[in-house]
Design brief:
Elements lengths: L7 H10 L1 H4 L8 H8 L3 H11 L11 E4 L8 E4 L1 H7 L28 H19 L6 H17 L8 H4 L4 H14 L23 H11 L5 H4 L3 E5 L14 E5 L1 H6 L3 H4 L20 H15 L1 H7 L2 H4 L7 E5 L6 H12 L3 E3 L2 H4 L6 H15 L3 E4 L15 H16 L4 E5 L15 E4 L5 H11 L12 H4 L6 H16 L9 H20 L13
Parallel strand pairs: 5-8, 5-9, 6-7, 7-8
Antiparallel strand pairs: 1-2, 3-4
Length: 545
Amino acid sequence: MQVHGLDRLERLLLACLAPGPLGLRKEWSCLQEILDTLASGPGERLRMARALSPGGRLAAPGLVTGSENRRPMQDKVCLAPVFARMVLGQADGEPPETAAPPEPERPKAEATEDGLPRLLAPLVEAMEARLEAMDGPFPPTNTRRSLDRALAAFEDALREEWPVFQVLRDGYDEAERLALWGLLARAIGAADGDSPLGKGMNAARLSAANLRESQAVAQRLLAPEARLRRDGAVQLLRRPAGPEPDGDEEDGTVACLTPQFIERLGLSRLRVRNPAVGRPPCMTLDQLALAPETLRALELVEAQLRHGDILRRDWGLGRQIPYGLDATLLFWGPPGVGKTACAEALAARLGKNLLVADYSQIQSCRVGETEKAIVRTFYRASENDCLLVWDEADSMFGDRSATTHHWEARDINTLLTELERFRGVCVLCTNRRDTLDRALARRIALKCEFPAPTSAQTREIWRRMVPPEMPLAADVDFDELSRPPLTGGEVKNTLANAARAAILRGPDTVVTMEDLRAACRQERQGRDFTAAGGPKIGFNGRAED
């Protein structure tokens, strides 16, 4: 058959693609392979790439088609099905003037909003392809059509009774909705950590026609006077200084949904599925029996957060103290006195999620990876407005003079630098304050000692920890159980062990004073064993002196 109006290179491309459907050779793996094999120079390579690109002279009339890939040079290119059948002689007639990409499968409406991440998946894929194509060398025409269809399919699948339908009900235009859905996909984990939707202001660039105007579109949508900002739906955060962990924009600005907007959409329970945003705290201050000095320190932190703008702007502290003004706390004291529980309760009081630094994900045997993971941890806490906790902080913030390897000191240097630049609330918990690096002292805004509780405080811990539903015998005496005093952690273990002993007798039993006494003796023996360092071990089962 003859194809009119094509130049030599375009006819050559069709001739080389035809043997695939005829079974004379295997299909070309990608656009890169075609160009490497057929192009004789840079000029021919560019002309061939343009002809095969979406909207090119071969793709626009439906002669060739290809699968969209995040990297355009990896697109798989082949003859369009209609044209391939004509080549094989299975159909007559001329090829169609235009051939749009196939309609994406419409997502099925899930039974509940818990299926929202799955509903978002096709839209996320179209958004990511759009961003990748926008940064590529060719006009992203068909990615825009695919994005429009995916957006319509997703919004048609939403149910009016879902709170998330409020985005459509509020009358946001298409550009604003694209930005909101992109940021929402990232917030609830529908887009993975490497997705371009999570970088800089990319989600606000989706409605731009090309790369040249994308920055202007993003700035217009995210300007302070723009509707997304006025409604409290989107906030802009600054990444802490240091090496870029996730390839953000050069100025370090990151757009994300506000926690209030996610709560308004009824999706706060989905938000915790994304590990980047921490988890809800599980303790409150009402459950803890704290010393007055500790309560005073927590009040100072709350005042710092609620009136931070006044301190920085109106009182001039932001000008005189440009960094290190945020709330960094050190909780130190013996084990079991409630340091970590107090950090949880502080997060609940401030209305923040809790992000506990995971040392197994931070430390790496590869050079430079630990420092990047440290920066990433601070960045994620700041980005998601989480309270950051470094539990057993002495394992990371140890004294640099005691290190044996240069990379250990480098890791501590990075920690100290990021801690000083961190914008948010950070809590360090340790029971070995004397092993911390001395430079840490000036970076800590509030240092709170958690002393061992007195008998009166232990009695208060018992009162607050025993649930009202627990069946207790009439002879249970918390005054006796508080002498000598127990820490909160020891009270927790004692109460749990006593309940286990009682439930062995059957579900209709009660927890007796003898159950609690036995559990107390067991807990104190464990304390004495730990304090003594355990029994000395010698040969033949005999202890050595």
